[in-house]
Amino acid sequence: MTAPGRRYAYVGPPDLRRTVVDGAGGRVIRSATDLDGAAGGDGGAAADDGGEPFTYVVGLDGLLRLAPRRSEHVACAEGQDVLGAGEISFRRTPDGPQVHEVSNQSTGYCPDPDSWPAVAAALDRAGIARPDGFTHALVFRRCEGCGEHNVVREAVFVCVFCDEDLPSAWNMAASRQPPPARGS
Q: What domain of life is recorded for the organism (predicted)?
């Protein structure tokens, strides 16, 4: 079953994708109790335990997958397309775990902030309390002049590499295409 939402293909370095091992993806989180095993065995912990955030993806099946923070998102997703990707940390509360911080910070998939509904649905499905949106959202754009990936800061849509204007709409899906030839 495929969950609704935009599919994000991997747009990062090809050599990282070649290191993906089938069957070694992120730990699937179907319920809040699955976090206990992820925190103990995979290198992450609840935020108030001083642990680092996790790398996460939301697979096309709508399920949350976690890996240690320094893991590549493409490895967490086993090289597959995703509905969302970023970093996430949890806090233990008397009512169970809740999301402490969550972002769409993934330079391998460069998901748009519009990926939040898929992330929210995966957390809701697992019964994990969450905020109403990303606690830190990044805006990614590919420069159509030089082809470089950019993080848009303070709503300034200008390429940090070549000073060309960046498009206002998400365009990372085409990022593996070579940049246009100069002067043509």
A: Bacteria
